[in-house]
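Q&A log
Question type: sequence-to-structure
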Amino acid sequence: MGLNEPKMKVLIIVRHRFELWVPPEWFVERLQRDFPGIDVFRFQDYPEAEVHLPDAEVLITWSLRAEQFVRARKLRWIHSTAAAVHALMIPELVASDVLVTNARSVHGPVVAEHAMAALLAMAHRLPAAMRYQQQHLWAQTNLWRDEPRPREVQGATLGLVGVGSIGGEIAKRALAFGMNVVAVREHPERGADFVPGNPGTPTVLKVVGFEALDEVLAQADFVALAAPLTAKTRALFDAERLGRMKKGAFLINVSRGALIDEIALAEALRKRRIAGAALDVFEREPLPSESPLWDLPDLLITPHSAALTDKIWERQYALFAENLRRYCAHSPLLGVVDKRKGY
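Response status: OK
Response body:
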């Protein structure tokens, strides 16, 4: 870079009511220190950042409007600190040559832990035990006589919808618990995406295409959703598909709320067509207080907390810094999104 050549501008625009999702000040300071050849600017909303859009080359954000994208004439790369990128997939961006990367590898390990925690909690009836605890009841007999009964997960079948960076981490943990894993993905020939750097990781027992989903549901004791939100997966679990699940099966969603028809799920739980569900994500968030989901006894609700960890920004920084080095060296980036597919 010549003496009179302007520095590369990196623009961070992330606003959220929950403070953990907002990049901390040290993130900016460390970037500036580790990459003295760039200028980093951080804002929590677009209006105050408007003046910087025309000459920003790199943008860290998770949403973008068409008029903002048009103003960013020098933009070459957008990085999302979320795994989901549907809020970025405007037609103008999809049709452009601007690269998009996401943080799916950042969230994979902790979201997978949460999914397994939910699976184990449902299997061993921990939400029911908590309700009995609040009533000061020693409910050993109740827990055994109630349906569904407590059960082991070893030897049970997990139907996994989506087996990318998050789904692959769920698969690894389920296999470690002795479960049989049947994973459904759009391109089954790819197998499972496990996080690089873990040699010797076991493979998923079976990976099949979406055309086999109903067959998988008929045999799965637990169904975990870790698929991206696309036109194909929106309301994937409607009344008909929920009806394909085994009566004693549990549904776990750690991906996006819109994958499930929540009205149909509530009806399936009320009529005990499935054993229970654990949801971390919802079509509308925060979940409205008047939602009927709150009062369903066989539904475990967590407030989109699967990705919460004190390690999140260290992981975010490691990923973005590595990609920034690659970008400056004109090398392939990690976590590149296929904009046509939306993930």
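Response note: The domain at 106-301 is CATH 3.40.50.720 (Rossmann fold).
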